[in-house]
Amino acid sequence: MAAALTLGACAGTPEETAPPVEDVSFDAGTTMAKLNEAGKITIGTKFTQPLFGQVDADGNPQGFDVEIGKLIAAKLGIPADGITWTETVSANREPFIEAGEVDLVIATYTINDERKEKIAFAGPYYSAGQDILVLAGNPKGIEGPEDLEGLAVCTVTGSTSEANIKEYTDNIIAATDYADCLEPLRSGTVDAVTTDNVILAGLADQNAPEFEVVNAPFTEEPYGIGLAKDDTDFRDFINDVLEESYEDGSWAAAWEATAGKVLDTPTPPAVDRY
Amino acid sequence: MDAVIENFPVFLGGFWATIRLLVLSGAGAIVLGVIIAAMRISPVGAFRAFATVYTEILRNIPLTLVLFFCAFLLPYLEIKLDYFVLAVIGLTAYTSPFIAEAIRSGINGVSIGQAEAARAIGLDFAQTLRLVVMPQGIRMVIPPLLNVIIALTKNTSVAGGFFVVELIASSRQVINLRGDAVIAILLAVAVFYLVITVPLGQVAARLERKVAVFR
């Protein structure tokens, strides 16, 4: 059903922003040296997350997560075509990292303590937050979750977003998928849809100009880069790459070429070297 | 198993919604089904034509589409109801032709002499149907009617895809929380359905013994 609703909505292809590959060398024995020598890296990302990681008609993933992956690969001396993209859905990210099927996971991957028990996180490289999607023009004048009191809101059953929004309204319509919430929003059965701003931005982008994101995130979901738990050298290296990219503008360029088309360019979050 | 026990209240909420869907749309479908069956055999041509078209359309469209229509198109026609009510409407409409056809087969099984005798003693069509033909016809079709009701029990799960949090939707909710225990969760859901359908079968069997018409 979700497919039926979003049928015909294709994400635009962001312009290529592949960064220049650096000529680098690393201490022998490190993951960086191994990857640099092999000239290739396997990165897990989502294939169905518009603006962050979504495959285009040719099967190539596009989005902000993908651009961050290219940045890191370039600093390892690996060109964009040396990257093997593997689809990681929410349920298989930790197992893929633990089994070594991927070197990195960049997949709208929220850093939390449970996950830190199994894997390590570099970053965060972006801090998402739960936001609100409304009809274009915002007919009800919703500016934040406080304005939702008494209004009907659609979200996915059992999600964190559902638990969060329960604090503001009891009138919740629970859908199977976020895309399923669009039809009730169109027909006026609900007044708003709520979940992470990046998902909402993707939906708004696919269905432009029907909807708009209120753009007032009220929770924090720091997105990190997942890697093997004990590989501290590699983690430090990625954190360095992220900090460099904040300073030289490549992070902002990656954002503007992808998610920035719908969302404001945020200040990059401070890297957490835990 | 602990995933099921921890989230038992969620399952109970879904179970209760499934039962309400079943009872409301089952009752609605039986009433509507009897009316449609009566129209199908009535002497008025327009009634017969309407009942035939109604039956052929609704029983040949997938339930998902019927519910899709109720949940997504009715709101555009300014029919703004709770999604639960819309699901009951959809399930009732979808199930009624199956009930009607089962009853019609029972009516066909009532010997024509019964109806002729009823007319001969001066009963009109409605009286003949209500007092003589339907009571015999419905008694004969308890097993097929039960099949329709059991199918309806399972069909309520489709409403889970249309914003109604019944058993299947509540299991999805628990799976979101406990992705490591999917099989236990699905087995628990299966057991909940059996809790509804197995007693239904026994009630129907007892009812059939009690009201059977011996010939």
UniProtKB/TrEMBL annotation, chain B:
<dbReference type="GO" id="GO:0043190">
    <property type="term" value="C:ATP-binding cassette (ABC) transporter complex"/>
</dbReference>
<feature type="transmembrane region" description="Helical">
    <location>
        <begin position="145"/>
        <end position="169"/>
    </location>
</feature>
<feature type="transmembrane region" description="Helical">
    <location>
        <begin position="83"/>
        <end position="103"/>
    </location>
</feature>
<protein>
    <submittedName>
        <fullName>Amino acid ABC transporter permease</fullName>
    </submittedName>
</protein>
<dbReference type="InterPro" id="IPR035906">
    <property type="entry name" value="MetI-like_sf"/>
</dbReference>
<keyword id="KW-0813">Transport</keyword>
<feature type="transmembrane region" description="Helical">
    <location>
        <begin position="57"/>
        <end position="77"/>
    </location>
</feature>
<keyword id="KW-0472">Membrane</keyword>
<dbReference type="InterPro" id="IPR043429">
    <property type="entry name" value="ArtM/GltK/GlnP/TcyL/YhdX-like"/>
</dbReference>
<dbReference type="InterPro" id="IPR010065">
    <property type="entry name" value="AA_ABC_transptr_permease_3TM"/>
</dbReference>
<keyword id="KW-0029">Amino-acid transport</keyword>
<dbReference type="GO" id="GO:0022857">
    <property type="term" value="F:transmembrane transporter activity"/>
</dbReference>
<keyword id="KW-1133">Transmembrane helix</keyword>
<feature type="transmembrane region" description="Helical">
    <location>
        <begin position="15"/>
        <end position="37"/>
    </location>
</feature>
<keyword id="KW-1003">Cell membrane</keyword>
<comment type="similarity">
    <text>Belongs to the binding-protein-dependent transport system permease family. HisMQ subfamily.</text>
</comment>
<dbReference type="InterPro" id="IPR000515">
    <property type="entry name" value="MetI-like"/>
</dbReference>
<keyword id="KW-0812">Transmembrane</keyword>
<dbReference type="Pfam" id="PF00528">
    <property type="entry name" value="BPD_transp_1"/>
</dbReference>
<dbReference type="GO" id="GO:0006865">
    <property type="term" value="P:amino acid transport"/>
</dbReference>
<feature type="domain" description="ABC transmembrane type-1">
    <location>
        <begin position="15"/>
        <end position="204"/>
    </location>
</feature>
<feature type="transmembrane region" description="Helical">
    <location>
        <begin position="181"/>
        <end position="205"/>
    </location>
</feature>
